[in-house]
């Protein structure tokens, strides 16, 4: 039975109040879908530290690209883990890092050049280096045996790939990747680069990895603005298969090659596809435009400072041109933590936490 997103939210948030912490820490790597404010401290055009971002978040605009909480906020709540702070925040030191750290950066990609037209951002390779900075701090706070156990029980969540398409491959006026590679070649380039960096994180002690696939980018308001009325941009969705299918296959290979670790693939494409195809089942009524933005489908520009968003935000799947509302983020997060293998393969995040 499918229950509405907001009913799920009310039920789960009440449960979390008394929930014990299931893992010692969450280490978050990714892009704007999980950025909690790192770009506030960078010279970047990709920022969301202004109203109406955070309109439904108790702390207001924090740098989260949402009207409220993000995917990573909900995953943390469901695991009983306090919000991992932004790495770039000068206060993210000492005891504040013990529940994990968030390295995610808006406009970041798997490839170093992705998103460069937005200015500074922590690319995947830089986020891995930033984690090693955190490790140096942790080494001063616990002995080697304790640190190894702590890292092995913690969960690394990686959310990458979307920008490598929408802020690289699909922008031929800024990047030459679409001239150099066909879609299959580009997907394989991303996968090879991604797995190398995942192995770098494994080599320094992390053992539990949740790797989110790419959602149906052709259906975000920014891409719908280029599609026929009422349609997703199917050509964009079609080129994502190499990456998503390859990431799932990579998870199988990584699990075979590293039996002391566990890697899981998050089927973002199917989860968000289900929301878009069956919105009423989740109490959504608007799937084809953003709650906040400018232009066709409110998707050609993101929310402008002090812009007026839609009043009924829980009815919308998309908050702005690129990002889900907190209601849609919650549905995906719940499925990532608790869902069947079709949502998270071969285990979900809750099962991973118990390992």
From TrEMBL:
GO terms for biological process: lipid catabolic process. GO terms for molecular function: hydrolase activity, acting on ester bonds. The keyword 4Fe-4S does not apply. The keyword Signal applies. Keywords: Hydrolase, Lipid degradation, Lipid metabolism, Secreted, Signal. Residues 1-18 form the signal peptide. It is found in: Secreted. GO terms for cellular component: extracellular region. Pfam families: Lipase_GDSL. It comes from the Eukaryota. PANTHER family: GDSL ESTERASE_LIPASE, GDSL-LIKE LIPASE/ACYLHYDROLASE-RELATED. Belongs to the 'GDSL' lipolytic enzyme family. This is GDSL esterase/lipase. It comes from Senna tora.
């Amino acid at each position: 039975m499918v229950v509405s997103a907001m009913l799920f939210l009310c039920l789960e948030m009440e449960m979390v109040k008394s929930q014990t912490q299931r893992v010692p820490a969450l280490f978050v790597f990714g892009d704007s879908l999980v950025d909690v404010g790192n770009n506030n401290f960078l010279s970047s055009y990709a920022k969301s530290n202004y109203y109406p971002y955070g309109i439904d978040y108790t702390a207001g605009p924090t740098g989260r690209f949402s009207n409220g909480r993000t995917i990573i906020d909900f995953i943390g709540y469901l695991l009983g883990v306090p919000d991992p702070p932004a790495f770039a925040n000068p206060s993210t030191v000492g005891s504040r890092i013990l529940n994990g750290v968030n390295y995610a950066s808006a406009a970041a990609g798997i490839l170093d050049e992705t998103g460069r037209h937005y200015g500074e951002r922590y690319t995947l390779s830089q986020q891995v280096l930033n984690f090693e900075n955190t490790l140096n701090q942790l080494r001063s706070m616990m002995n080697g045996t304790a640190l190894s156990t702590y890292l092995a029980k913690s969960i690394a969540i990686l959310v990458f790939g979307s920008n490598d398409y929408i802020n690289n491959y699909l922008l031929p006026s800024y990047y030459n990747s679409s001239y150099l590679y066909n879609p299959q070649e580009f997907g394989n380039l991303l996968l090879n680069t991604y797995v190398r960096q995942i192995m770098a994180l494994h080599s320094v002690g992390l053992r539990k990895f949740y790797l989110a696939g790419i959602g149906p980018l052709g259906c975000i308001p920014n891409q719908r603005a280029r599609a026929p009325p009422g349609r997703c941009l199917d050509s964009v969705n079609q080129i994502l298969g190499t990456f998503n299918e390859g990431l799932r296959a990579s998870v199988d290979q990584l699990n075979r090659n590293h039996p002391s670790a566990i890697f899981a693939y998050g089927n973002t494409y199917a989860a968000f596809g289900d929301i878009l195809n069956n919105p009423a089942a989740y109490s959504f009524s608007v799937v084809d435009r953003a709650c906040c933005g400018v232009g066709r489908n409110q998707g050609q520009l993101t929310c402008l400072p002090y812009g007026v968003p839609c009043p009924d935000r829980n009815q919308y799947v998309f908050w702005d041109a690129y990002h889900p509302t907190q209601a849609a983020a919650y549905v995906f997060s719940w499925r990532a933590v608790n869902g069947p293998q079709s949502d998270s393969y071969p285990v979900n995040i809750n099962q991973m936490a118990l390992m």
